[in-house]
Amino acid sequence: MIVQELHKLQTKHGYLPRQELVALGERLAVPLYRIQEVVSFFPHYRTSPTAELEIHVCQDMACHLRGSAGVLQELREAAAGREGQLKICGASCLGRCDRAPAARIYEQGNEHSVYNLHRRSAQEIIEAASTLLSGKSNQLVVNDTDHAWPPPQKDWQIDIYASQPVSERYASIRRFIQAGDNSAAVQTVLGSLKTAWLLGLGGAGGRAYKKWEETLKEHQKRDEKAYVVCNGDESEPATFKDRELFLRTPHLVVEGVILAGLVVGASKGYIYIRHEYEEQIAAVREEIKAAEAAGTCGDNILGSGMSFPVEVFVSPGGYICGEQTALIEAIQDQRAEPRNRPPELQTNGLWDMPTLLSNVETFAWVPAIVVRDQGKWFQEQGQEWNQWTQLTANLAAETGDRGWTEAFGKGTHFKGRRFFSVSGDVERAGAYEVPIGITLGELIATCGGMRGGEALKAVALSGPSGGFLPRFIKTEHLSAKIRKMLPTELKAFDLCELQLDMNLFRQWGLMLGAGITIYSESADLVEQAYSASHFYARESCGKCVPCRIGSTKIAQVSSQLRVRKLTRKQIDELFQKDGPLLDLAGTMSSTAICGLGQIAANPLMSLLRYFPDEAYAYAAQS
Predict the structure, then answer these.
(1) 116: pLDDT confidence band, cut at 50, 70 and 90?
(2) What does DSSP assign to residue 148?
(3) What does the DSSP assignment read for 184-206?
(4) What is the reported pLDDT for 157?
């Protein structure tokens, strides 16, 4: 594979020498332009030697909140005059949002993650990083690793093997093979997923069993190869739960992928992991070897005659690779540009074959669902409808408005459990496994409450994708359809009392993802909107003209606001009904191929919608 060979070359040389690219083309029997088109697309690749040592400081969300811009400036000042030896620059999200501010150190092809940079001076950081060149170890670089970080939540119900010997793992694979009747075993697994009501936990939230079933049916119809792909790119700011699942429970992810391969009849599985997750890559590769040694992965699984090899695919970088069709293109050694859909991956995925692609967490829940009472246990998890929901339903009944209870009052409890990555202004940021339907307030309490006891100002419930929401949302900001369903007396609601369920949030017209960033009263949301807008501008793949130009324009507007070049009148004009920002956002949303163009305007638009006073505070004097 071109991508993986390039990764090896860059690790060896620190960059990609032209003679090595020519030799690679000859070895793989592909023209040089094919290699160059891949090299030119991905941000991880370098085509010329740079400084001996590079420090890339994260610029996004939690890191920006914790002062990464100041750290970056201090590092640049401390490195002045050493340009040939030391390079300092900004970077997109590094997946260490719970340890902000974070950075990556690049040294002669090797990479290291460091974090909590605000605890050290710029000179201390540079001196510690420089010891890499001399081969000396340093606590900042070598020992300050994921393994040394105490998890805020020690016990996870997802790991059904936590108190058992290693030999007990892969129980779902053994059960599948021992069933003998392959068709019956397949239906048992699909039935378990259906009973559990497992949803895709990478953002889309579709029923998992349907995707498995569609892939299986297409594979049976075409009688050709099929594939399983686990999406562990996780490059969205505020998301890092998959990082923890890879590191703490790699056996669950590998087992879920293998069982999926056996069920849909796939010939191979790929676990796609971002290149910044070195420890996670090593952990998953080690687990694959262990599964192969146990006979539950690879050729002739447990003597059944069925084979399903699994390998780790290391991402060459770029947020766009988290989009599932772009990820498929990267595995195929293409530029990671999203595809037009339909067709969907279940019918035309990897190499145009039926492909089951799901998120890390979705696969990781499969063993617990299948082994524990065939999905009934998972279905019974989840919070009851809380008092606020019932109280508001009663209010609707008193006023004769039944729309509320019909729209939001059905059911007795939410189903299942899930993980949230929580960062920002909480006492204990981290990845938390919680019952679905927990309220935002309860989740914050689980994280030890607000940092320093400050009040909650805002929350980003889907990384930057959903923008910033205030604690108290006025009903006038909801869609007309939703307002009609609500009691007329309800003028605002407390976001802390809304239960965290994807389907419930969709009914409200809100976004709920896996990454949640919490902001206290001291947070500067203009700075946050600036940071998020520039993230999307940097990470647009450029395939869609409206997205490529539009995301850049949005970033420019956020910069103008930040440096106080917009008057109050100009700020108001941006968000008028037919104003330039709403018009641009609408154009991008309706024409972009993938989700990036559809949500790139959300951080700035939500700032102007919910926090106009913060924007006015940055207004230029007219």
Answers:
(1) confident
(2) G
(3) HHHHHHHHHHHHHT-B-SSSS--
(4) 96
Query: Are residues 224 and 280 in contact, defined by beta-carbon separation less than 8 angstroms?
Result: no
Global confidence as pTM: 0.94
Strand order in the sheet with 227-232: 310-315, 268-274, 227-232, 355-359
- Output the DSSP codes for 362-389: HHHHHHHHHHTGGGHHHHH-SPBP-HHH
Delimit the domains of the chain by residue range. 2-39, 53-148, 166-373, 382-523, 524-622
Q: Which residues pair with 269 in a beta bridge?
A: 228, 310
Residue range 530-578, pLDDT digits in tens: 999 999 999 999 998 989 999 999 999 999 999 999 999 999 999 888 8
Rounded CA separation 502/437 (Å):
9
CA 445 – CA 463 distance, rounded (Å)? 20
Q: Are 620 and 563 in contact (CB under 8 A)?
A: no
pLDDT given at position 483: 83
CA nearest neighbour of 281 among 365, 360, 335, 202 = 360
Would you say 472 and 494 are in contact if contact means Cβ atoms under 8 Å apart? yes
CATH topology of domain 53-148: Glutaredoxin (3.40.30)
Fold of the CATH domain 166-373: Rossmann fold (3.40.50)
Give me the CATH topology for the region 382-523.
Ubiquitin-like (UB roll) (3.10.20)
> Six-digit token pair at 359?
């998120």
Tokens of 457: 């100002």
Give the 3-state secondary structure of residue 588. helix
State which H helix or E strand residue 88 sits in: strand 86-91
**Tokens 């230029």 belong to residue:** 620
316-325 average pLDDT score:
93
Q: Which residues contact 534 (CB under 8 A, 6 or more apart)?
A: 59, 555, 558, 559
Q: Both tokens of residue 496?
A: 């802390």
- Whether a cis peptide bond, with omega within 30° of 0, leads into 546 is no
Copy the structure tokens of residue 462.
Answer: 């889907």
Looking up tokens 């068709």, which residue turns up? 183
Helices 602-610 and 580-591: angle between axes, nearest 10 degrees: 140
Assess whether pLDDT exceeds 90 at residue 194: yes
State the CATH architecture for 524-622: Up-down Bundle (1.20)
Nearest CA to 112 out of 139, 85, 89 is that of 139
Q: Which token pair is 426?
A: 């909480």
> Residue 529 is encoded by which pair of tokens?
């909107």
Structure tokens at 303: 């003597």
Q: How many CB atoms lie within 10 A of CB 154?
A: 8
pLDDT tens-digit map of 124-148: 888 877 776 555 444 444 334 444 4
Share of the chain above pLDDT 90, in %: 72
Residue pair 544/593 in contact by the 8 Å Cβ criterion: yes
